[in-house]
Write the structure tokens for this entry.
Amino acid sequence: METLSASMDATNDTINAQWSFLGGGVSPTARISSLALRFVLRDNAGWHVSEPTTYVSGSAFSLEATELAYFGYDPTNSIVAIGTSETPSFNEIDWVGFQVDATRGPNTGGANAGLRKFSVQAFPGSLETAFVQWANSFLLSGTNALVSADPDGDRLNNLYEFGLGGNPTNGNDTGISPTYAVVAQSGTNGFQYVYPRRTGDSGLHYALELNPDLVSGSWSNIGTSAETGSGTLDVDFESVTNRISTAGMEKEFIRLIIEQTP
Ligand SMILES: [Ca+2]
Ligand SMILES: [Ca+2]
């Protein structure tokens, strides 16, 4: 259930780095005269680069990440193209690093520069699960934000709303409904049951349960054993196809179970 991300606020956002000018065998006119560090982070899938902070010989950087000004940036395309001013949310950071702007100038610095330390303080992502982030995005709070709650009264609790892509605050939006059809395959009929599955959340589990008779039978959990394939639905969901043999059966009932483990 944990997401591999972190968050920052003013109490836990310190960046520490320490640089030194180093000697070396380059021409004196090519020495590095100044260094500036830019903090780089990816937050909510968007890259940002901070304003530069100039290195002063003999000192270490210690910056408050959330106090810096940020700009658009895409290191997968260019490390020199810096865009316009941006304000990261600092609530879903999954990548941190830095960029160094080195200026070669008069014979005052070092032939080279070396990084001695780099560390970042942030809150671990385990404090905020994908479900909690989702519930927050709908402004759910208190008991309305529980997985078992149904604040919009559509009989789909928040875990199922999350698992099916529904809107927990709109009783008319229950997400992507599973579909089923009788499909022949290799000469025998079977149920084809297709349901949506949220990706990127290892703590969310989907399973099918079968019951031959709702009056006298009982539900048996077959897990994902009937799964025959899956395909991308959108950035958060895939479509999962299942085939359940009905050979020799008069009827069969299917239901989808969604569970969460920590
Ligand atoms: Ca609901
Ligand atoms: Ca709903």
